[in-house]
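During the reporting period the student researcher (J.K.) took over the structure-prediction task from the postdoctoral fellow and processed the backlog of single-chain submissions. One of the processed entries is reproduced below for the supervisory committee.
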Amino acid sequence: MIAEAEISARNDIAELPALNDFLARFWSEQHLPAGPAMDVNLAMEEVFANVVRYGYPDHAEHRIAVRLTLEGDIIALTVEDDGVAFDPLQAPPLKISGPPGELRVGGLGIHLVRRLMDNLEYSRVGNRNRLVMKKRIRGAA
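J.K. obtained the following structure tokens:
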């Protein structure tokens, strides 16, 4: 059985509480284990915040689609936007130790999402970025 839900949010950080509620409702309705919910929620927040902050140089209102798909023991979180083309999978790994002059600013959110989720897939479909993040949730603590 496949369960899906989708929400559309404005490119505004103030939309985060609605997105958090959306995820919590889906989690509850599907009777999913609590452990992985925090990881999926944090990944959603990081990606959404990055799209809002860096994806729209025109500062106009845009819509960002967030979809949850549960298939078996895999939850897929998809974030789709019409922002500037950006493949987060091409970002270099975050260097977290070394001399201060060699450390770069930024990239912590992408690093975190890579660590929290089991699989990431990016595609540019027409003029839209699509990031699919997957996590195995059954049997997780």
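The committee noted the following: The radius of gyration is 15 Å.
J.K. will present the remaining backlog at the next meeting.
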